[in-house]
Structures are given as structure tokens and as C-alpha cells.
Amino acid sequence: MAKLTVNENGPLKVEGDFTLTDAAGNTYNTEGKKAIFVCRCGATKNPPFCDGNHKNCGFEGPSRAF
Ligand code: FES
Q1: Is the pLDDT of residue 49 over 90?
Q2: Rounded to two decimals, what is the model's pTM?
């Protein structure tokens, strides 16, 4: 089972049993990774993965479940 965590003002953390594909169905190589961080801000230079640029672009992404 995969667990997805929406990080406050940051990326989406994906861990567990998952496969990440692009819109065409091609699979990203995440072999050996226990977790990945998917960009939510759009500022990454390595899409779809977070590269830390959300800290520099003023991204605000609240993450509270109600
Ligand atoms: S969320 Fe980290 S670079 Fe976009």
C-alpha cells in the first residue's frame, strides 16, 4: 500500500508500494527508493521530482485534512 503525505508548503511524499508514471503511461525509475518527493510548486528543475526550489519561490500549499 502506498502512503501519500502532503507536506506543508512543499512536495508530496510518496512511500510504500507505488509506481510513478507520466501521462503517456511510461514508468519513472524509482527502483530502490523507499520514498520519493513529487513537486507541487512547479519550480523544480527535475520534474516531477522536488529539488528543493519550493523554498525559494514563495510556494504556499497548506496541508491540513479536515
Ligand atoms: S515542491 Fe519542491 S521544488 Fe516544487
Answers
A1: yes
A2: 0.92
